[in-house]
Write a structure and sequence with these properties.
Blueprint: H1 5-8, H2 23-40, H3 42-54, H4 61-82, H5 86-116, H6 127-141, H7 144-147, H8 155-177, H9 191-206, H10 221-242, E1 266-268, E2 277-279, H11 299-308, H12 319-322, H13 349-357, H14 361-371, H15 385-388, H16 400-412, H17 417-426, H18 452-462
Antiparallel strand pairs: 1-2
The protein binds iron/sulfur cluster.
Length: 463
């Protein structure tokens, strides 16, 4: 085997590529991980040792989840060090911080703005007027430059960014003028907020949009900002209806209600032929050549699914993994008679998504691999038992298989990403039953058939 250590592993680690396939060296690596863990956090290491030594006996599911989550962060740090991935890990964290704006604004939009306008006929809004108003506000105080995007054309991120800032400005003025139970005593408006607010107010006054009498009569700067925010709320609501370019925006995505009698949506082309139905045109995909598989979700869509998850392990209600029980402890059925058993592997789904949300895909993959070393063979193209048992039973469940696939592909895209995945299948300290392979015992086994069952049993026998 070619020694590619110099390109590959941190030269200070003392390990070579060959070592990652040698059971004795993997045992050394496990010992080194323990030392690393102790140095990073002795208390958490003690918890992990307690779990490992007792094989989880006497610990609640929640305690085990928390220990695994804490340990997965340390393991991620250890592997980042071993594979020299500091730059890549920083990028994952930055990506989370930057996408967070969209998810934060989505929450404001759906919980507050959408509710406020739910009974209004949006078609009657004057879109051109609202859009010109929004243009003026944006050009005055929120240039795209302010938000420092990697992709300057990311209008959704830009919109979320300036909207959150506008909300913050209005809040400062509300606290100052009208008071608020959350406002600190003797609250004063920060200087930089005053400058930004001043710019917006004066430009709207000079454009004749803010008048001092008539229907837009205003008393003070807070009234003006309140009026601006209300107009901008109307604009963001109307944008969904009038702007065709935003139909895939995450901020507008609401979970669909589940109709078990029509899980697959179809249309009748000809009312005289009731049996003739076809899927909706917007979902139609032509299968050309060998491109038979579906497109994956993009990163923003995946992070939206991760954000939608309720991380039910913290209430021991993670039915995606454990199944949904009735009050007698029997597995529930859904309305079309499918037993809700959850993941057949009891994969730590809630924990995996919780850790992904913080920006640690290596930690997420390590949690998945404890129960599912053959993860490239599962994911969004294969099974969805977890989705069927998700706590959301009357609306769209979390799309766990897409998240799982994305966690894996995030790792594959790293330098030596395949080696990281491959190492975790052989060596994973979070897998307390078999953290590293036992040395070869001189026995050979012939496995006939290399489908999922064949390669999975081979994996376990090799370990
Ligand atoms: S996937 Fe569904 S059941 Fe599982 S933790 Fe998230 S919300 Fe809960």
């Amino acid at each position: 085997m070619k020694n590619i250590n110099a390109d590959f592993l941190n030269p200070e680690s003392g390990y070579s590529y060959e070592d990652l396939y040698d059971p004795r060296r993997l045992k050394d690596l496990a010992d080194d991980f323990d030392k690393f863990f102790k140095k990073k956090n002795m208390n958490k290491f003690d918890d992990f040792s307690r779990y490992r030594n007792s094989n989880g006996k006497g610990l609640s599911d929640l305690e085990i989840s928390n220990i695994l989550i804490d340990s997965s962060f340390i393991l991620s740090e250890f592997l980042v060090d071993l594979f020299s991935l500091e730059k890549e890990q920083t990028k994952f964290i930055k990506e989370i911080e930057s996408e967070k704006k969209i998810l934060d604004f989505k929450s404001v939009f759906q919980k507050k703005i959408l509710k406020k306008y739910k009974d209004q006929d949006i078609q009657k809004f004057n879109w051109n007027e609202l859009d010109s108003f929004a243009d003026l506000v944006r050009q005055t105080a929120f240039t795209e430059h302010d938000f420092n995007f990697e992709n300057k054309n990311d209008e959704e991120k830009y919109t979320a960014g300036f909207f959150l800032e506008l909300i913050e400005i209005e809040k400062n003025y509300r606290w100052f003028y009208a008071g608020d139970k959350f406002a600190p005593e003797n609250f004063s408006i920060p200087e930089e907020v005053k400058i930004k607010a001043g710019k917006i107010i004066s430009s709207l006054k000079s454009a004749g949009i803010i008048k001092t009498d008539g229907k837009n009569e205003v008393q003070n700067d807070h009234d003006i900002l309140n009026f601006i925010l209300a107009e901008m709320e109307k604009w963001i609501i109307a944008k969904r209806t009038f702007d065709p370019n935003v139909k895939n925006w995450i901020i507008y995505k609401e979970p669909e209600k589940l109709d078990f009698n029509h899980l697959v949506k179809y249309e009748h082309q000809d009312n005289s032929l009731k049996e003739f139905m076809q899927g909706s045109q917007d979902k139609l995909r032509h299968r050309l050549g060998f491109k038979l598989t579906d497109k994956r979700m993009n990163k923003r869509q995946v992070l939206n699914e991760v954000d939608y998850c309720m991380y039910c392990h913290d209430r021991e209600k993670d039915s995606c993994s454990k199944g949904l029980n009735d009050r007698f402890g029997k597995k529930k059925m859904n309305p079309i008679g499918i037993e809700l058993n959850g993941c057949p592997l009891n994969e730590k789904i809630s924990e995996m998504q919780f850790v992904r949300k913080q920006g640690f895909p290596i930690a997420s993959l390590a949690l998945v691999i404890i129960d599912n070393p053959s993860v490239p063979g599962t994911g969004h193209r294969i099974c969805n038992d977890c989705m069927k048992s998700c706590i959301f039973q009357t609306q769209e469940p979390v799309n766990i298989p897409e998240v799982e696939t994305n966690v894996l592909t995030d790792i594959f895209k790293l330098p030596y990403g395949y080696e990281i995945y491959s190492l975790l299948t052989r060596w994973n300290p979070l897998n307390i039953k078999r953290p590293y392979p036992l040395p070869y015992k001189g026995k050979n086994v012939l496995v006939v058939g290399m489908g999922p069952a064949g390669y999975t049993v081979s994996h376990y026998l090799l370990k």
